DNA sequence: TAATATTGTATTGTACACAATTTAATTTTG
DNA sequence: CAAAATTAAATTGTGTACAATACAATATTA
């Protein structure tokens, strides 16, 4: 058995596991909002930027249209967002919050703190972690 | 706009992005083996442990039967693993490597180094990262 | 030992995630 | 200005991921 191929020697695996566990940790917190974790991320950027088209959301969240189109349709079905084709450039679909979607921000406010408590990290560790991850992200992109 | 809900203030998001980018970074390297990243993880544990049942693989990789059953069937269809129901306890399905699956380890040997180069991390940073991630993983599990 | 509980896997349903392709609209350029 | 190139979404197909459920086999216990 090649030592280098042992699971415990893979850097990728803890990251992969952690990402899944984070989604799982969000699930109960997002239940009251009736959204999934990726849907919550879309709401986050819409609360921040008010109005974005599909491409812009994809750039912010690193998601492509094959993921976003059905996800946004589900948010639309829940009356959380509006999907409107731009009249200036009809290729573009503008996504905006409905009143209901915008008002959900109030209920979401308590979520980040709850997650941070679950993570049990010190501020120092959180800064280190973000720094290292961003370093990888900046170089890994082909 | 609540500052705490800004995307850039979320710890979860870089982890989520990084996990996806790692899968993407593996894709071209795994193409020659004709496996996906989760399939590669299954092969990793099989190369290490030789023989595991479905439950054991799930515990090692934090995956449930709903994910593993079809994934293992795909590996079986590629003639990389055998699925055999245990004669001692017929509920158990033992997963073992075929000759082809075992021999793939040779070709995989070069992959971890290539990934590590893509990450551009120093050994020190890699240790820090693993440490912090494991700290979160140990506490986040409900 | 018969009734009950637990265990291990499979199945079903919903929701990402991304490659590849398609379609329509806009821009570029010859 | 028309042909070609580019752009933005949507669609299709494959493959995870997980909750919930089903089901059969084994273990427990009254």
UniProtKB/TrEMBL annotation, chains A, B:
Alphabetized InterPro entries for the sequence: HTH_MarR-typ, MarR/SlyA-like, Transc_reg_Sar_Rot_HTH, WH-like_DNA-bd_sf, WH_DNA-bd_sf
Source superkingdom: Bacteria
Subcellular location: Cytoplasm
Chief location of this protein within or outside the cell: cytoplasm
The HTH marR-type domain, residue ranges: 8-138
Keyword NADP: no
Keywords from the UniProt entry: Cytoplasm, DNA-binding, Transcription, Transcription regulation
Keyword Nucleotide-binding: no
Protein name as catalogued: MarR family transcriptional regulator
């Amino acid at each position: 058995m090649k030592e280098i191929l042992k699971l415990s020697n893979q850097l990728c695996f803890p990251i992969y596991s952690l990402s899944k566990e984070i989604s799982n940790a969000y699930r109960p917190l997002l239940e009251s909002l009736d959204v999934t974790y990726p849907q919550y991320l879309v709401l986050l950027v819409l609360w921040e930027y008010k109005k974005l088209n599909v491409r812009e959301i994809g750039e912010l969240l690193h998601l492509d249209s094959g993921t976003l189109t059905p996800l946004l349709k589900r948010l639309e079905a829940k009356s959380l967002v509006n999907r409107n084709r731009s009249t200036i450039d009809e290729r573009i679909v503008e996504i905006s919050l409905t009143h209901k979607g915008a008002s959900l921000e109030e209920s979401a406010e308590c979520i980040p703190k709850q997650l941070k408590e679950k993570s049990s990290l010190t501020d120092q560790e959180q800064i280190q972690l973000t720094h290292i991850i961003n370093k990888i992200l900046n170089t890994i992109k082909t």
